[in-house]
Amino acid sequence: RIREHIADKAKLPILIFPEGTCINNTSVMMFKKGSFEVGGTIHPVAIKYDPRFGDAFWNSSKYSVMTYAFNVLTSWAIVCNVWYLPPMVKEEEEDAVHFANRVKAVIAARGGMSVLPWDGGLKRKKVKESFKEEQQKKYCQIV
Question: Which of 59, 63, 49 has its CA nearest to residue 123?
Fold first, then answer.
């Protein structure tokens, strides 16, 4: 459906959040590759919230939706910086994962955030043993 949509030049662009979730405003997590497989031009946008007046992030394991809604509605303001970055296209030799990582790196750099190689689902699921072992092997090589 996305391919059909972007093929029709009369239609407006699609807004996609490729992380699939939000975290604590310090990092950009792994992007889902699907939206980078379909071709077309990506118009990256970096968004970073300023927590000085109110925190827009919801820690669902700590606060209920009602508590979060109360906190947002009673905060002084929800302020964020938004940067519209230059359009990007997939290079010929580039696969969807590398393209997604390149876009993610540009967004993270502009927002002053770090790049994380893992999926946002990790905050709700247990880490796979194979992932732990891979990280342990990398650490052993460093040491």
Answer: 59
